[in-house]
Amino acid sequence: MTSLSLSARVTDRDVVVELEVAAGETLALLGPNGAGKSTVLALAAGLLRPDDGTVALDGRVLTDVRDGRTQTWVPAYDRHVATLSQEALLLPHLSVRANVEFGPRAQGRSRREARAVAQEWLDRVGVADLAERRPGSLSGGQAQRVAVARALAAEPALLLLDEPMAALDAAATPAVRETLRQVLAEVTCVMVTHDVLDAALLADRVAVVEGGRVVEQGATPDVLARPRSVFGARIAGLNLLRGTWRHDGGSGELVATTGERVHGQAEDLTPGTAAVAVFRPTAVSVYAHPVHGSPRNTFEVVVTSVEPNGDLVRIRAGHLAADVTAQAAAELGVRPGARVWFSVKATEVSLHAS
Ligand SMILES: Nc1ncnc2c1ncn2[C@@H]1O[C@H](COP(=O)(O)OP(=O)(O)OP(=O)(O)O)[C@@H](O)[C@H]1O
C-alpha cells in the first residue's frame, strides 16, 4: 500500500522528481550536494510549493498545483508530517517530558493521555531517566533521542529525517542509529543522508538523486551491490557479512555464513539469532603478513580485483572490500591472486539483528 506519493517540478531549482513510499517503509535519499534531496523533503513537509505537482499521504491530497495554479494546499502544521533534522530543536524552557508531551497536547489530547503517550516514547527510546531534565543539560545524542520521541509522540503519518546524525560526534552516533532502527520499523519515512552506513542499516529502499532527478532507485541491498549511477557506484561497496550471533562468554561474535568470525559494536543481540556485521571499506587496513593484536578482526583473503575509487584504490577480495591509498597499494604490490590480510578494528564494525 502506497503511503506517500510525490510528483513535482520546481523550475528555479531544476528539480523534477517522482517518488512513492509504501506504508511502513523507509526510503533513503542519497546524492551529492545540491542534488535536490532537501527540496524533496520540503515538498513533502509543505514548506515548498512546486510549480507543478501533487503530494498525497495515505490517500489524502496535501499538495496539488497545476501549471502554477494551486488547487490544494494543506499547510505544514496540518499534514501529519514530522521532521527530524541535524539539530534536536527542542523547546529549551520545557523539560524533556513536556517537550515530548507537546505534540499530543497540540493535537487536543488530554493532559493524562499526552503524559501516557510521552512516557511510552521516552521508554522506547531509552531516555525515561532524563524526563525532568532541561534540553540544555543533555548531550547531543541524548537530545536527538528525545527529539525522536517528540516527533513520534505526535503519531505522524510520515517522518522526514534530514541527516539526523550529521551533527553528532562519532561516539553518540551508534545509539541514535540504533534508536532509529527500532522505531523506523513502524513508520513511513523518507531520510536524507550522506552516510551510506545509515542507508544500509536503516532504509528498505534507496533513491539516488543527481541534478534534481531520481537517477536510480531500488531495494537497498540491490542498489548498494549493483549500482547503476555514478553516485551509486561511489557509495557502494560497504562490507556486509551475514551470520549468527554467538555469545559463549567474552564479548560475543558474529559467525558469518562465509566463515569469518567478526567482533564489533553490538546492540541488543540474542545468541543464536541472525545478525549482520557492517563496516566501511575505508576502515579496512591491508597487510602482506598476518597481523596480531586485539581488538581487531583479521581475515586472510585472496585479492580478486584492484581498481581506482576516487582518490583511493579499492581492493576487492570476494565479498569483502578495502579502500587504501594509492601509495599503500603500491607498497603492498597487490594484484589479483595475491594473498593478503584484511584487518578492521572492532570499534569500526556495527553488528545488528537482521
Ligand atoms: N531556498 C532555496 N532557494 C532557491 N534555490 C534553492 C534553495 N535551496 C536549494 N536551492 C537549490 O535547489 C537545488 C537543490 O538543492 P537541495 O538543497 O535540495 O539539495 P540537497 O541534495 O539537499 O543538497 P545538500 O546535500 O547540499 O543539502 C540546488 O541547485 C540549490 O542551489
From TrEMBL:
Q: Which GO terms describe its biological process?
A: molybdate ion transport
Residues in ABC transporter domain copies: 1-236
Q: Which SMART domains match?
A: AAA (SM00382)
Keyword Coiled coil, does the record have it?
no
UniProt organism field: Nocardioides jishulii
Q: InterPro entries of this UniProt entry? A: AAA+_ATPase (IPR003593), ABC_SmlMolc_Importer (IPR050093), ABC_transporter-like_ATP-bd (IPR003439), ABC_transporter-like_CS (IPR017871), Mo/tungstate-bd_C_term_dom (IPR008995), Mop_domain (IPR004606), P-loop_NTPase (IPR027417), Transp-assoc_OB_typ1 (IPR005116)
Q: Which Pfam families match?
A: ABC_tran, TOBE
**Keywords, A to Z?**
ATP-binding, Molybdenum, Nucleotide-binding, Transport
User: Does the keyword Transport feature in the UniProt annotation?
Assistant: yes
Give all residue intervals belonging to the Mop domain: 292-353
Q: What is this protein called?
A: ATP-binding cassette domain-containing protein
Name a GO molecular-function annotation.
ATP binding
